[in-house]
Amino acid sequence: MAATRLGPAVGHWTFNPKDAGSIPADVTDPGLPATQPGVAYCPGISGATPEPDRLDLLPVIDLKLLRDNPDLVRASQQARGESAAKVDTLLAADVSRREAVARFEALRAEQKQLGKQMPKASGDEKAALLARTKTLSDDVKAAAAAVTAAEEALKAAQLAIPNVIEEGAPAGGEDDYVVLREVGTRPALDAPRDHLELGEALRAIDMERGAKVSGSRFYFLTGVGALLQLGLFNLAMQQAVEYGFTPMIPPVLVKPEVMQGTGFLGEHASEVYRLEADDLYLVGTSEVPLAGYHSGEILDELAEPRRYAGWSSCFRREAGSHGKDTRGIIRVHQFDKIEMFSYCRPEEAHDEHLRLLAWEEELLAKVDIPYRVIDVAAGDLGSSAARKYDCEAWVPSQNRYREVTSTSNCTSYQARRLNIRYRAEGGSSQPVATLNGTLATPRWIVPILENHQQPDGSVRVPKALQAFVGTDVLRP
């Protein structure tokens, strides 16, 4: 479980011309970031100085991959329905940055050479060297400014491109998913009540008082409703621990660089609650703090995936959901969630992704909910995900499946931005892969109530939850 901090302070790096020396080859080439133990990679100038308590955004897209196979990145953009021209913008920014660095290095080399020549120069030669030194000083400052500008342009171009999708992920938009399988038997119900009608009759859900206290899309879980959630969450956490996850109760307020590093401040920024006075963000998933947990570290032991199960409250503005799912607890502003999060070697990420999905399905089977698994289309992926699978539970009152879990393989996208690496064979360090998967949320109460309802308005409690709820049947 050991980890190495990358330098005394992993920081936001700013160019300091006075300290700038030669640029190592692995830093000059952003596709090959520095891997020296205990040294933080600064995408720019060696001798740059950090601002404490800030995280520098590392290359999001592997620039070596981009240079060697730009068509792969273009194809990913097209599959997502995004502009492939952004790839050309990034390539151009990469070239401009390398040219700016090369010019700065050439001028610094000349500056050093002049310094060696001065003591040996004759009177006339010394005067000429002094004159050149003065103009060269201005040239070096201008070149340093050009490097800084080029790096900012490169970073902006990188941040505009989402993760490269995994081979085999379906192309298209929200409706172009692929159904992989359907599991379980849908109940035969003549006139199914919806979860809110059932929940109100059972005194389990109180939307009216939630709205009175906090506004629309807020609610109280009361009595057996609260017990159902606590039982489900305890069952989920027990399962996670059985599979080697470390239980975590993380903070729900995070710094901007952690939110941005996980990919939630781009197109998703309008979904996030921000505490402006403190410059902190409320998380929409514990994926965010769990990803930030090892930011700026080298994981010294990663022979096996490192897994965490986070239990936290989550907050979402649902800014783009006006008029959608206004009834009940399907789409709300605040909810609790148990999230699986895994750090692993990139070559293990595909198999780890399938394991996370299997654990989600296992929990659905324990509470006897019919569901299906879909392979989410590229255009419906978040910016950090290379591939995502959703489990959708059958909701009888809507005669359709609704998402209750999702699991994403983020490859090295988040790790590059948050500077999370592992010690590889031979002592070098490489970016890890990060993956996440929902294990339980209050939305599960919707299919639990609806699929287990009885004609008299009672609801059977799934056997796996009976010990937590204290009964086998919920009655109005």
From TrEMBL:
Coiled-coil regions, chain positions: none
Top-tier EC class: ligase
MF terms (GO), sorted A to Z: ATP binding; serine-tRNA ligase activity
EC number, as in UniProt: 6.1.1.11
Entry keyword annotation includes Acetylation: no
Main location: cytoplasm
InterPro entries given in the database record: aa-tRNA-synt_IIb, aa-tRNA-synth_II, aa-tRNA-synth_II/BPL/LPL, Ser-tRNA-ligase_type_1, Ser-tRNA-synth_1_N, SerRS_1_N_sf, SerRS_core, tRNA-bd_arm
The protein's annotated pathway: Aminoacyl-tRNA biosynthesis; selenocysteinyl-tRNA(Sec) biosynthesis; L-seryl-tRNA(Sec) from L-serine and tRNA(Sec): step 1/1
Complex formation: Homodimer. The tRNA molecule binds across the dimer.
Entry's family note: Belongs to the class-II aminoacyl-tRNA synthetase family. Type-1 seryl-tRNA synthetase subfamily.
Name of the featured protein: Serine--tRNA ligase
Organism (species): Virgisporangium aurantiacum
Taxonomic lineage of the native organism: Bacteria, Bacillati, Actinomycetota, Actinomycetes, Micromonosporales
